């Protein structure tokens, strides 16, 4: 496989550039970056070395021009840079700022996995969080969690149980916390629990329940959105949610929740009664103990932001 320098040398010959070699190299030597490089390394570069590196200098100028003109260069996403290598001039290719930004965005996106969550959470930001008197505590405690977790991610940090009426920004706040954590290098999984429950039921026939459950229960940070929105069967409550929370409690993994119910309401009006109407207070209490261990309640109020 030919390297780019060989190709440049052949190109120079094919275009009969040798006849106009001096004119060509004059344009190369007049390039500001070439001039600056030769000036900086004047003591290290003899005239003979500069001549022997002509094809490298030509490569650098030619590839740089392609990039400037918006054309695809030799190494897509990389920009040429002159370097010294083994006492000769060489060309190194380094990532462009556009490629660096793209890679950062991809890394950022990979740190947040969402299941059946609204698209808007991808743009959720704590800096854009509408701070009113009835939402200030939630924002303050969110920032406290982020600071404590990032200072010591291996130490257990109790997360938040956000509760309040429809549309006050509970889901948005979860997304904003996840995005801040992602920008600082920490991974989060967000699930809309009613939708996740349906997905788990559908996975039974494909033997995929275990894999989906493992992914959720082992997440470094888990956010369970809209818990209590739909009635749940004893199986979903005990063998899915119960297993997730038991694992996370035993391993002290941060777990957020959002709900329209307070903790007491969630226990009495939702978890205690299964989808068949059976009253199972002990199972509900057992589950609530895990939720209370993992999170502390924070109430959100205010206007319904879905109705503008």
Automatic annotation (TrEMBL):
<dbReference type="InterPro" id="IPR009928">
    <property type="entry name" value="DnaI_N"/>
</dbReference>
<dbReference type="InterPro" id="IPR002611">
    <property type="entry name" value="IstB_ATP-bd"/>
</dbReference>
<feature type="domain" description="Primosomal DnaI N-terminal">
    <location>
        <begin position="1"/>
        <end position="93"/>
    </location>
</feature>
<keyword id="KW-0378">Hydrolase</keyword>
<keyword id="KW-0547">Nucleotide-binding</keyword>
<keyword id="KW-0347">Helicase</keyword>
<keyword id="KW-0067">ATP-binding</keyword>
<protein>
    <submittedName>
        <fullName>Helicase loader DnaI</fullName>
    </submittedName>
</protein>
<dbReference type="Pfam" id="PF01695">
    <property type="entry name" value="IstB_IS21"/>
</dbReference>
<dbReference type="GO" id="GO:0006260">
    <property type="term" value="P:DNA replication"/>
</dbReference>
<dbReference type="InterPro" id="IPR027417">
    <property type="entry name" value="P-loop_NTPase"/>
</dbReference>
<feature type="domain" description="IstB-like ATP-binding">
    <location>
        <begin position="141"/>
        <end position="266"/>
    </location>
</feature>
<dbReference type="Pfam" id="PF07319">
    <property type="entry name" value="DnaI_N"/>
</dbReference>
<dbReference type="GO" id="GO:0005524">
    <property type="term" value="F:ATP binding"/>
</dbReference>
<dbReference type="GO" id="GO:0004386">
    <property type="term" value="F:helicase activity"/>
</dbReference>
């Amino acid at each position: 496989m030919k390297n780019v320098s060989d190709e440049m040398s052949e190109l120079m010959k094919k275009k009969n550039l040798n006849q106009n070699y001096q004119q060509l190299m004059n344009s190369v030597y007049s390039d500001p970056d070439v001039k600056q490089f030769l000036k900086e390394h004047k003591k290290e570069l003899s005239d003979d070395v500069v001549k022997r590196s002509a094809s490298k200098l030509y490569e650098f100028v030619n590839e740089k021009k392609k990039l400037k003109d918006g054309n695809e260069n030799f190494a897509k996403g990389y920009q040429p840079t002159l370097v010294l290598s083994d006492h000769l001039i060489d060309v190194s290719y380094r990532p462009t700022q556009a490629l660096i930004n793209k890679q950062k965005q991809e890394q950022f996106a990979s740190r947040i996995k969402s299941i059946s969550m609204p698209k808007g959470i991808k743009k959720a930001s704590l800096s854009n969080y509408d701070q009113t008197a009835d939402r200030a505590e939630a924002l303050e405690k969110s920032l406290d969690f982020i600071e404590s977790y990032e200072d010591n991610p291996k130490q257990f940090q109790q997360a938040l149980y956000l509760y309040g009426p429809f549309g006050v920004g509970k889901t948005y706040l979860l997304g904003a916390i996840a995005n801040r954590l992602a920008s600082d290098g920490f991974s989060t999984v967000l699930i809309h629990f009613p939708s996740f429950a349906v997905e788990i039921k559908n996975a039974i026939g494909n033997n995929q329940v275990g894999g989906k459950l493992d992914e959720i229960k082992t997440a470094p940070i888990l956010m369970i959105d809209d818990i209590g929105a739909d009635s749940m069967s004893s199986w979903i409550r005990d063998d899915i949610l119960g297993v997730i929370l038991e694992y996370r409690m035993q391993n002290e993994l941060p777990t957020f929740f959002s709900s329209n119910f307070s903790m007491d309401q969630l226990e009495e009006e939702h978890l205690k009664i299964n989808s068949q109407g059976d009253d199972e207070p002990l199972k509900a209490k057992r589950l609530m103990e895990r939720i209370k261990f993992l999170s502390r309640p924070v109430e959100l109020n205010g206007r319904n932001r879905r109705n503008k």
